[in-house]
Every structure is written in structure tokens, then in C-alpha cells.
UniProtKB/TrEMBL annotation:
SUPFAM superfamilies: Metallo-dependent phosphatases (SSF56300)
UniProt keyword terms in alphabetical order: Hydrolase, Iron, Metal-binding
Entries under PANTHER family matching the protein: CYCLIC NUCLEOTIDE PHOSPHODIESTERASE CBUA0032-RELATED (PTHR42988:SF2), PHOSPHOHYDROLASE (PTHR42988)
Organism classification: Bacteria, Pseudomonadati, Pseudomonadota, Alphaproteobacteria, Sphingomonadales
Transmembrane domains' residue ranges: none
Coiled coil: none
InterPro entries per record: Calcineurin-like_PHP (IPR004843), CNP_phosphodiesterase-III (IPR050884), Metallo-depent_PP-like (IPR029052)
Name of protein: Metallophosphoesterase
Family: Belongs to the cyclic nucleotide phosphodiesterase class-III family.
């Protein structure tokens, strides 16, 4: 079984240090096999913010935790126009990681991160055709029984992000990106960006999806919350490419606690969800398959 902590939207520069410390302590105590961080390390891509993010990553790594990280749109300068268009991710490469499309593989899982942040868009993301080719190539050599996981900052699919159920924008070149993920045999797609927790079978979101399970992380530590959803991150136990557990770990004002625990099982190309623990409800958030769950 692979134990993966999936965090997103850290936003140094608009974060709560107390929540950062609590998340760090939680990770150091649980010791996941891999910590995945799906972008937006900073609020405005400033040097001081990147230094804070680098120090935090260094602390995780010094504790012996492995990490896989990708940039988000907030890691591209917004108001520094020259830097935005000519060297958009230079600071990210210097302070966080030179590798914008990292790959991790062990006996249980193969995980590819793809950079979707772009200079020409303020908040939306894109995947280019070279990245799609890389996605196919990387997973082509992975044994079929391993779980293939794709990590992006911007989700591949449109999904509900507002209280009224309004849908988000899908990643640019959405149809081609979904086709590439399908051809690569992606089992799980992890993303962030919207500060909203969500999980759903891809085939319920778009036709011809290839049967991936789509999992969104909320913001782990930012003070910029949406729809009254608290800070949170995901705790995944991946048993096989057709069976996994998803726990949403939520900040309750004093510490991080489990909000929901759902078991996903895939038969053919269909994922089904079964809630393992019925949580006590403290504040509302969107959970797996559109269910509402909250901290216990």
C-alpha cells in the first residue's frame, strides 16, 4: 500500500503560520511514503515568499519525507510584467525545483506531475502537446498493475466550485488532455487551484474519460478560503489501481483532524464510493461524489 499526502495551494504570503506548523507536525508524525504538492507555493511569486516555501520544503525533506512538487499560477509573477513573460518560473526553479514535470515511481505507484501554469493567462492553466506526449511516454513503460497517478495544478475537468453548483473552467486543450490521460491509462488525477475539496469518477464528468478517479485538494494553509470551506489536504491509501481510500484532513481551528474517510473501488471503468466513517459535522465542505462532509 502506498500512503500519499496530497497538499495544494500553500500560498506563502497569504497563509497562517500556525496552520503551516500544524500541517508540518501532522506529516512528520504520519510519515507518508510521498508528499505531493500540486502548486501555488506563493501568493505573488515574490522572493521572500519563495524563501519561506523553500524553508518549509527543506524542513519536510530534512525529516526524511519524499516530495513531488509542481508550480501553480500564483508561482508566476502577476504584476512584474517583464519577469512574467520572459522568465515566469525562474524563481520557482531557483527556490523550489528545477524540474517542472517530475516523475516518481516505486513498487506500488507511478506518479507524473505536469506544469499547467502559463504566462499568458492570469489564472487558467493549459497542457501543451509536448506534455501530452510525455504523459503517454512516461506511463507506457509502467507495469499495468501499478497505479498511475497524474498531478496538475489546474484540474483537467470542469467541476462544481460554487454554492450554486456553477462549474469551473477546464484546463486548456481539455479534450486533447483527457484523451492523452485516457491513452496513458491514468487511474487517479490529483489537482488543486480552486481551494475546494472534491472527488468524483471522471466518467461522470466527461465522456470517454478512461475511468480515472478525479481528486481535488482544498487549500492546505491559505487564509483565502472559498465557500466557507476550511483548510484541508488529502490522505490517500492506494492499495491497488482499483482500490484506494481517501481521507480529507481538515483544520478545525486547533489542529488537523479527519473529516471524512471514503473507500473507492473500481470495477471495469467505474469507481464506486463507500463512506467508512460517519463523521461528526463541524462546518460544511464538499466531499466525495458531491457528498457533504466535515471535521470530527
Amino acid at each position: 500500500m502506498a500512503r500519499i499526502a496530497h497538499l495544494s495551494d500553500i500560498h506563502f504570503g497569504a497563509n497562517d503560520p500556525r496552520i503551516v506548523d500544524a500541517a508540518t507536525a501532522w506529516l512528520e508524525e504520519r510519515r507518508p511514503d510521498l508528499v505531493v504538492i500540486s502548486g501555488d507555493f506563493t501568493q505573488r511569486a515574490r522572493v521572500g515568499q519563495f524563501r519561506q516555501a523553500a524553508a518549509w520544503l527543506g524542513k519536510l525533506r530534512a525529516a526524511g519525507l519524499k516530495t513531488l512538487v509542481i508550480p501553480g499560477n500564483h508561482d508566476v509573477p502577476l504584476y512584474d510584467v517583464l519577469r512574467r513573460f520572459f522568465t515566469p518560473l525562474r524563481r520557482y526553479r531557483r527556490y523550489i525545483s528545477h524540474d517542472l514535470c517530475p516523475f516518481y515511481e516505486d513498487d506500488e505507484v507511478a506518479i507524473l506531475g505536469i506544469n499547467t501554469a502559463r504566462s499568458l493567462t492570469i489564472k487558467d492553466g493549459r497542457i501543451n502537446h509536448d506534455q501530452m506526449d510525455m504523459l503517454r511516454h512516461r506511463f507506457a513503460h509502467v507495469p499495468r498493475d501499478k497505479t498511475r497517478i497524474l498531478v496538475t495544478h489546474h484540474p483537467l475537468f470542469s467541476m462544481p466550485i460554487g454554492k450554486g453548483g456553477e462549474l469551473s473552467e477546464a484546463v486548456g486543450r481539455h479534450d486533447d488532455a483527457v484523451q492523452a490521460a485516457c491513452e496513458a491509462g491514468v487511474h487517479v488525477a490529483l489537482a488543486g487551484h480552486f481551494h475546494r475539496t472534491y472527488a468524483e469518477a471522471a466518467d461522470k464528468m466527461v465522456a470517454h474519460s478512461g475511468g480515472a478517479l478525479v481528486i481535488q485538494a482544498g487549500t492546505a494553509t491559505s487564509t483565502r478560503l472559498r465557500n466557507d470551506e476550511p483548510q484541508s489536504f488529502n490522505w490517500l491509501h492506494v492499495r491497488r489501481n482499483n482500490e484506494m481510500d481517501l481521507q480529507v484532513i481538515v483544520w478545525d481551528g486547533a489542529g488537523f483532524r479527519r473529516a471524512s474517510h471514503v473507500e473507492y473501488v473500481r470495477e471495469g471503468e467505474e469507481w464506486t464510493a463507500k463512506e467508512v466513517v460517519e463523521p461528526v459535522r463541524v462546518g460544511a465542505m464538499t466531499g466525495p461524489a458531491g457528498l457533504t462532509s466535515a471535521a470530527n
